[in-house]
Design goal:
This protein is α/β, with parallel strands linked by helices and about 425 residues long. It is built from 15 helices and 17 strands. The strands form 2 sheets. Strands 6, 7, 8, 9, 10, 11, 12, 13 and 14 form a 9-stranded parallel sheet that branches. Strand 10, helix 7 and strand 11 form a beta-alpha-beta unit. Helix 4 crosses helix 5 and helix 5 runs parallel beside helix 6. Bound molecules: guanine and zinc ion.
Length: about 425
C-alpha cells in the first residue's frame, strides 16, 4: 500500500544552529509519500498527487503540520509512576522516590505493565522513539523491548548497572552486570527495530571494576551505544570527586575505562570543565539536554552553545526526573532555559533538537528523525490550533514559525492529531 499524506510539511536539509531558518524546508501545501514503511518522497502536494494517482490519500488540511516523530533521547521508563514527585534534589530524589520504585521491577508482570503504559503515554505525545534506562533487573529490559516490538517502534534501551551506593536488591556486580548485559545485547540488539544500549547508571553507583567490565563489553560490541549520566548536579560532581580522587574530572571516571568515544551518550552535562568540553568534542560523544528535569530537580542550566562546538546534542524528557512526557513541553523548557542564559532558541532549532538533533545524538540519523526519502516513516501530525488559546495566538501568524511557536510553548497531547509508526497510522484521535 502506498500512502500520500497531505498537509503542511516540515523537514530539515541542514542544521539550524549553523544555518538558521534556511536549514528547514517548509511545504505549505505539501505531501509525504509512504511506501513499505519508509518515506518514498516529500514535496508539493499537487506534484506528488499527479505522480502517484493510485496512492491512498489522507488529507490533514492546511491547519496540520506533518513532521518526523519526536525522539526522546534520555528516559527512565521505570520512573513512569513517580513522575512529578515533590521536593527533593538529585541524590535525595534517587533514594526517596527512584530506588524504591525501581525495586518493584524485580516482578516481570509489573515491568510489563509499566513498559506498555509508558510507551502508550509517549506515543500519545507524538514520541516515536525513546532511548531508555531500565532497572538492574534483566526482566525490566525484556519487558521494555517486548512492549516496543509489539508497537513496531524503533527503540533503544539497556539494563541499568549499579554495584555500589544503591540499596540491597538494587545492586549487581561487575561480573553479573557484564554477563546480563551481554546476554540481553545478544538477544535484542538488531532484532526488529530494537537496539541495546550499554548502561552504567553513573559513576557514583558503579565501581571502577564495573565501569571497566562495561568498557570491555563495549569494545566487543562497538556498534552499540553506551549511555550514562554526567555532571548533572553540583553535589553529585563533588561526590564523584570524593569517590575518584585520582580522576582529572567527572568525565575522566568514564574515559579511563574506555567509556568515551563516538556512540557515548551523556545525559545532562551541565557542570562541565573546559577539559571535559574539549574532550567530549574531540571524542565525538553525544550530550542530551533534559530541560524539564534540570529545572524540576534543580540541577542547572545546560549550555546550548555546546552544539556549535561540534558536539551532537539531543533533547529529552528524562522521565521521571523530568516533569512531563511531552516533547512539546520539553522544547518549551529548552526555550525558557535558553532565555535565562541569553540564548533565544529559534523554533526551527527547538524542532530540530526534538527530531534530527536527538537522532544524531543516537547516531540514528540515517534511519529516523527527518522526512526524507529512504528514512523510516515515523511521523507526527500536529494540529496547529489545538486549543482556543493557541488558535487565537496563531490567527495573525505570517510564517510557519509564528504559527508553530504557540504550539511549542503551550501545546500538549491535544496537539497530536495522528502518529505514524513504521508507515502505519496508530489511529486517529
Ligand atoms: N543520575 C543517576 N540516576 C539518575 C536518574 O535516574 N535520574 C536523573 N535525573 N539523574 C540520575
Ligand atoms: Zn537519567
Amino acid at each position: 500500500m502506498t500512502d500520500l499524506l497531505l498537509g503542511q510539511v516540515i523537514s530539515f536539509t541542514g542544521d539550524p544552529f549553523e544555518l538558521g531558518e534556511a536549514a528547514a524546508r517548509h511545504e505549505a501545501r505539501g505531501a509525504v509519500l509512504v511506501e513499505n514503511g519508509r518515506i518514498a518522497a516529500v514535496g508539493p502536494a499537487d506534484a506528488l498527487r499527479v505522480a502517484h494517482p493510485r496512492a491512498r490519500i489522507t488529507d490533514y488540511g492546511d491547519g496540520a503540520l506533518i513532521s518526523a516523530g519526536f525522539i526522546d533521547a534520555h528516559v527512565h521508563y521505570p520512573q513512569t509512576a513517580i513522575i512529578a514527585s515533590w521536593g527533593k534534589r538529585l541524590i535525595d530524589w534517587l533514594e526517596t522516590y527512584t530506588f524504591p520504585e525501581e525495586m518493584r521491577f524485580s516482578d516481570p508482570a509489573h515491568a510489563a505493565e509499566v513498559a506498555g503504559r509508558y510507551l502508550d503515554l509517549v506515543l500519545a505525545q507524538g514520541t516515536t522513539t525513546v532511548c531508555s534506562y531500565c532497572t538492574i533487573h534483566p526482566a525490566s529490559v525484556e519487558a521494555f523491548f517486548e512492549a516496543a516490538a509489539a508497537r513496531g517502534l524503533r527503540a533503544y534501551a539497556g539494563k541499568t548497572c549499579m554495584d555500589r551506593n544503591a540499596p540491597e536488591g538494587l545492586r549487581d556486580t561487575a561480573q553479573s552486570a557484564y554477563d546480563d548485559s551481554k546476554r540481553l545485547l545478544g538477544r535484542w540488539h538488531g532484532r526488529d527495530r530494537l537496539s541495546y544500549v550499554i548502561t552504567p547508571r553513573f559513576s557514583p553507583t558503579s565501581t571502577p571494576g564495573q565501569l571497566e567490565a562495561l568498557g570491555a563489553l563495549w569494545r566487543e560490541h562497538p556498534d552499540c551505544l553506551m549511555q550514562t549520566h554526567l555532571s548533572e548536579q553540583a553535589d553529585e560532581v563533588a561526590w564523584v570527586r570524593d569517590l575518584h580522587p585520582q580522576a582529572r574530572d567527572y568525565l575522566d571516571t568514564y574515559e579511563v575505562h574506555g567509556l568515551l568515544r563516538e556512540g557515548a551518550v551523556f545525559g545532562h552535562a551541565i557542570h562541565l570543565t573546559a577539559r571535559e568540553k574539549a574532550r567530549l568534542a574531540e571524542a565525538g560523544a553525544s550530550l542530551v539536554h533534559c530541560p524539564t528535569s534540570n529545572t524540576f530537580i534543580g540541577s542547572g542550566l545546560f549550555d546550548m552553545g555546546l552544539v556549535t562546538r561540534g558536539i551532537r546534542v539531543g533533547l529529552a524528557t528524562d522521565t521521571g526526573g523530568g516533569s512531563s512526557f511531552s516533547m512539546l513541553r520539553t522544547m518549551a523548557a529548552a526555550y525558557e532555559i535558553g532565555q535565562l542564559r541569553g540564548q533565544a532558541l529559534h523554533p526551527a532549532q527547538l524542532w530540530w533538537l526534538a527530531t534530527q538533533g536527538s537522532a544524531q545524538a543516537l547516531r540514528a540519523e540515517d534511519r529516523i528523525g527527518n522526512i526524507a526519502p529512504g528514512l523510516e516513516a515515523d511521523l507526527v501530525v500536529i494540529d496547529l490550533a489545538s486549543t482556543p488559546a493557541i488558535e487565537q495566538a496563531t490567527r495573525r501568524a505570517g510564517s510557519l514559525w509564528q504559527q508553530l511557536f504557540p504550539t511549542i510553548m503551550m501545546g500538549d497531547d491535544r496537539a497530536i492529531r495522528e502518529v505514524w509508526v513504521g508507515g502505519r497510522p496508530l489511529g486517529r484521535r
